[in-house]
Write a structure and sequence with these properties.
By secondary structure, the protein is of the alpha/beta class. It is about 40% helix and about 30% strand. It has a domain of about 110 residues. The longest helix has 30 residues. The relative contact order is 0.14.
């Protein structure tokens, strides 16, 4: 005999995405809806514990501590809150992790195969080119070069960005004949210990599902290209806690990528040099107050000195990256900028000092488009009172089109 109180609830699967960048981990629980934008039901972000002195091992440890915390929040706050007073039971049905630098190595390459006679292109033809390049990339990875006994890198993601037959682009090469096959490909590798650690942490909380793995550069490229279809040429820039990533897109395809080890926390370290001994939380507050021009004039001038120090070093790296790109051709004038933090205004201001006149055809300042809360609402819908996370929105939009 059953009753209202013992009735079983219908199970509704949700998707989980983890945004693993260089200074924090974000999370989003969302649901795909046929004919509609995906809807985000929960977001959260956990910053890494701030470190005055940083190295690879310290960053690695901070990331895994933040991962454990964010997974607890998903289980004990996210799912509990979503299921409260509902007549259905939401459970996690699948999950993906999207990585930013420095958690992977990537390479954009043009691969070519020449045939003496017209050759029918098969999946085997494409795989042969791909596999050869993948093995070469693994063998020359920085870890392999420095220490043959170091933990190996594993394949994270590989994607064909463009296929050309006899010099002409095609979306459907299989079965066609050509003397020349050209693939523009993106290959990403990540350390085995990192990859296995992520999988282990996630499956301990939410077992029995396969973890999808992606890079934020490709997710952002795909989303921007879809939303701004008129933009064949652009630069995408993502500022993380410790690293800045740059992607150059030309003729609708990723042409180049770069990253450098300066990000939001660089501002805090430069501020700490002036306000020695100040706790991390207070450093953030000082910078935020300075942004709002609410501090006393002496403090404001000191903080501005710290910000100018960051600007000098950050722009040096940024302009050097642009210079290496522009050795091949002029750079696009449109720049898409993404940063989840309150410091985004500072880096937007930094961009005004970029030497764009040296690298672009127009010799004009970059035309900057922020991937912010307003753009997020174009990409996804949000449940009421859910925090708008621009990077989560980019990833959810990408994943909803991928699956």
């Amino acid at each position: 005999m059953s009753s209202f109180f013992s009735a079983k609830k219908d199970i509704v699967p949700l998707n989980l995405v983890l945004d693993i960048e260089s200074g924090s981990i974000g999370a989003g629980l969302y649901m795909n809806r046929p004919g509609k934008k995906p809807i985000v039901l929960y977001t959260a972000r956990e910053n890494f514990v701030y470190q005055k002195d940083l190295n690879g091992q310290v960053l690695f440890s901070a990331m895994f501590k933040a991962l454990e915390t964010i997974l607890d929040r998903i289980e004990n706050a996210g799912l509990v809150g979503i299921n409260e007073n509902k007549n259905v039971l939401h459970v996690i049905g699948g999950y993906d992790a999207v990585l930013s630098s420095p958690w992977y190595l990537s390479e954009i390459k043009t691969l070519k195969a020449l045939y003496a006679t017209p050759h029918q292109i098969s999946q085997s033809s494409i795989n042969k080119l791909f596999d050869t390049e993948e093995r070469e990339f693994e063998s020359k990875s920085e870890i392999s070069q420095q220490n043959k006994n170091a933990d190996p890198y594993l394949l994270l993601e590989r994607k064909i960005l463009r296929t050309n037959l006899n010099g002409y682009s095609t979306d459907k090469p299989i079965g066609k004949t050509a003397r020349e096959l050209e693939l523009i490909v993106a290959i990403s590798l990540t350390p085995r210990v990192f990859l296995e650690g992520i999988k282990s942490a996630v499956t301990r909380k939410f077992p029995s599902h396969q973890l999808g793995l992606h890079t934020f550069s490709l997710a952002a490229f795909s989303t921007i290209r879809d939303i701004y279809s008129q933009e064949d040429d652009f630069i995408f820039m993502h500022v993380g806690g410790e690293v800045t990533d740059i992607v150059v897109v030309k003729k609708g395809t990723i042409a180049d990528t770069a990253s450098f080890p300066l990000g939001r926390n660089t501002i805090l370290r430069d501020t700490e040099k002036i306000f020695s001994g100040t706790p991390h939380g207070a450093l953030e507050s000082l910078v935020k107050i300075a942004l709002e021009n609410k501090s006393h004039s002496l403090d404001l001038s000191k903080i501005q000195i710290a910000i100018n120090d960051t600007k000098t070093s950050w722009l040096k790296f940024f302009n050097d990256a642009l210079s290496s790109f522009s050795d091949k051709s002029f750079l696009p004038n449109t720049l898409f900028f993404q940063d989840n933090s309150p410091f985004s205004k500072i880096f937007m201001e930094f961009l005004k000092g970029a030497e764009s006149n040296r690298f672009t055809v127009t010799s004009q300042p970059f035309s900057v488009i922020a991937i912010d809360a307003s753009l997020s609402k174009i990409l996804v819908d949000y449940e009421k009172d859910i925090v708008n996370e621009s990077s989560i929105a980019v990833e959810v939009n990408f994943l909803s089109r991928l699956y």
